[in-house]
Specification:
- The chain is an alpha/beta fold.
- Helix content is 23%, strand content 18%.
- The protein has 10 helices and 14 strands.
- The protein has an 8-stranded mixed beta sheet, with helices on one face. A 6-stranded parallel beta sheet has the order 3-2-1-4-5-6, with helices on both faces.
- The longest helix is centred in the last third of the chain and has 19 residues, at 395-413.
- The protein is globular, with a radius of gyration of 20 Å.
């Protein structure tokens, strides 16, 4: 179960948004426009320790099949195979952005894509072709009964993530899951945490910001002591949606911004491994029709939510998500610490920084979309199984990125009332 921060108790936990839970089920139909993550807004480091991180020039992420690797992201040089074992993987979900095939499981030398599934037969067949797989199932519920499958990638609709992960875990499968870990429900967060923890299986949330060049560089610098204690961090996920994006049963229509918080929250949690302990959030009412409360099932009036968090280090963080502000958009962040800061490049007191390059990928595995993160996330998940170790974005980290947004939206709905955030720790 989640815990409250030391010295504080949250009596409001478990009482939120029950009327919304389970409204939309089964397929994650993610992005319907090019440029959601605006990979061009990511930052690519120069490959030299302590070097500046120039602006990335990759094409925008696409909602179509195939890879869109960032320039210079083919860093297979230096890759050393750990094992000749092949993990038998099942993949579920091939919606608008075709995420099921976008992370490169089918290209990894330690993976055999054993079976795939999508509720729509045409999409299921297309996913099978994309993954060079001959076995298909009509649903996740049927796929996880296949005893030959060791791990499952859940690329379904966001409202079904918790349900589908729990189903896969109950059948003894390791699970990788698209973001967010849960959808608006603190009760689901507790159930998911307890289930994964007690199972002993690997769980990893595929938060793409964690393998963007800028965040990965900040994580390396933080771990080497180059920032000292962080005083302030910022994260942003800005994606203008004048019209609601296509989604299974319309789950994206009127989506509360802070229910999709992990791209921005990763710019603290994914760097430090710390958490947010308290929040006050301001929601700004939207002029867009689908973000009016009478026009969406969430009764959500906000197109932009700006959350101000207290961090477990005792610092401050501002994390913003916006659907209704046209202009410069993407996923990015910056930090300021007692020994140094990072906003596009490191500036500070440290003179001997670590190498900031991301680890090499196996030959043939593309870095992929969202700033060259897809291949790295998939490879990290597979290595965590082969090496029997904790994956980068484990269940505690995933929930510590997701749950603060759920509480932040509740704060926004109560005019910025301060609220305590549940804590997850393995």
């Amino acid at each position: 179960m989640a815990t409250d921060p030391p010295g504080k108790k949250d009596n409001r936990r478990g009482q939120d948004i029950k009327r919304f839970h389970g409204k939309a089920i089964t397929r994650r139909l993610f992005i319907n426009k090019a440029g959601l993550a605006a990979a061009g807004l990511g930052l690519m480091q120069s490959g030299r320790a302590g070097g500046a991180v120039p602006a990335q020039t990759a094409p925008h992420d696409r909602p179509s099949g195939g890879s869109n690797a960032a320039p210079g992201s083919d860093n297979s040089g230096g890759w050393v195979p750990f094992s000749d074992r092949r993990i038998r993987v099942g993949i579920v979900g091939y919606g608008v952005c075709r995420f099921g095939a976008e992370f490169g499981f089918q290209n990894h030398p330690n993976v055999e894509v054993t079976a795939v599934s999508d509720l729509f037969p045409d999409r299921c067949e297309a996913l099978a072709r994309a993954c060079n797989c001959k076995k298909t199932y009509p649903s996740l519920e049927e796929l996880v009964k296949d005893d030959s499958i060791e791990a499952v990638f859940v690329a379904t609709d966001a409202p079904s993530h918790a349900k589908h992960v729990l189903e896969a875990i109950s059948h003894g499968k390791h699970v990788a899951c698209a973001v967010p870990a849960v959808f608006g429900s603190l009760e689901d967060a507790d159930m998911l945490f307890d289930a994964v923890k007690s199972s002993g299986l690997k769980y990893m949330m595929f938060e793409t910001s964690c393998f963007r060049e800028d965040l990965y560089a900040m994580k390396r610098i933080y771990e080497s002591g180059g920032f000292g204690e962080l005083v302030y961090s910022e994260g942003e996920y800005f994606h203008y949606m004048e019209e609601p994006i296509d989604s299974f049963r319309g789950w994206r229509i009127g989506l509360p911004p802070q229910w999709y918080p992990t791209h921005s929250n990763a710019y603290h949690v994914g760097i430090t491994g710390g958490t947010f302990t308290e929040v006050t959030c301001i929601g700004i009412k939207s002029i867009l029709e689908h973000l009016r409360p009478e026009n969406n099932v969430y009764k959500n009036p906000f197109g932009t939510e700006i959350a101000n968090f207290t961090t477990s280090e005792g610092g401050a963080a501002r994390m913003g998500v916006s659907w209704d502000t046209p202009g410069d958009e993407g996923e990015r962040g910056r930090v300021r610490g007692q020994k140094g800061s990072f906003s596009g490049k490191y500036e500070g007191l440290a003179t001997d920084l670590p190498v900031l390059a991301k680890p090499p990928l196996p030959p043939g595995v593309p870095a992929g979309g969202h700033g060259g993160s897809h291949g790295h996330l998939m490879n990290e998940f597979i290595l965590s199984i082969l090496q029997d170790r904790k994956p980068l974005v484990d269940i505690a980290t995933a929930l510590n990125m997701t749950v603060p947004g759920i509480v932040a939206h509740r704060s926004a709905m109560k005019n910025g009332k301060p609220m305590i955030i549940p804590q997850f720790k393995l």
